[in-house]
Design goal:
alpha+beta; 2 domains; elongated; 101 residues; 4 helices; 10% strand; 4 strands; two-stranded antiparallel ribbon
């Protein structure tokens, strides 16, 4: 019951646990046993080699949510957060089309 309330409901991961409980110092072997596999994520290739064979474009949805706790912590997807960080300088340069143009 306590595990479900603390870990599952609040989406606490291993890094969060180590942050919340700094006196916890598991061995590297124990940490390796705790690491779970990541579910596969699907991305779409949205470019065509017929247009430009040197360019490959991908489409993906960024996983980002607020945890239902007192602090309102934000959690993000492992890969999509990384991809968003890589793309953000380019996205800032793109202007959204206006419906009046």
């Amino acid at each position: 019951m306590l595990y479900r309330e603390f870990v599952e409901k609040l989406c606490v991961d291993l890094l969060d646990l180590l942050t919340f409980f700094p006196s916890c110092r598991p061995t590297i072997v124990h940490l390796a046993d705790l690491i779970t596999t990541i579910s596969p994520r699907y991305y779409s290739v949205v470019s065509s080699p017929l247009t430009d064979p040197r360019v490959v474009r991908f489409a993906f949805s960024v996983v980002d949510f607020t945890v239902n706790d007192d602090e309102g912590r934000r959690k993000g997807g492992l890969c999509t957060s990384y991809l968003e960080g890589l793309c953000s300088p380019f996205l800032a340069q793109v202007r959204a089309p206006s419906e009046f143009e």
